[in-house]
Amino acid sequence: MNLQDIYLISPELGIGVVAALVIIVDLLVSNKKVLPIVTLVGLLIPLFFVIQIDIDAGSKTGFSGTFQVDDFAIFFKYLILGSTAVVVLSSTEYAKKFEGHQGEYYALILFSATGMMLLASAMELITLYVALELTALPSAALAAFIRERKSAESGIKFLVLSAVSSAVLLYGMVLVYGLTGSTHLSEIGSSITAYGLETSPALLFGIVLITAGFGFKISAVPFQMWAPDVYEGAPTPVTGFLSVASKAAGFAVILRVFYTSFGLDDANIDWANMIAVLSAVSMSVGNLIAIRQNNIKRMLAYSTVAQAGYLMVGLAAITALPGGDDNAGPIGVLFYLAGYAMTNLAAFSVVIAVSNIKNNDSIESFSGLAKGYPLIAVAMTLAMISLIGIPPTVGFMAKIYLFSAAMDTGLEWLAIVGVINSVISAYYYLRVVKVMFLSDPEYKMEKSKTSYGVGAVSAAVIAMVGTFVFGIYPAPILRIAHTAVESLIG
Question: Domain locations in the chain?
Answer without folding.
Answer: 264-490
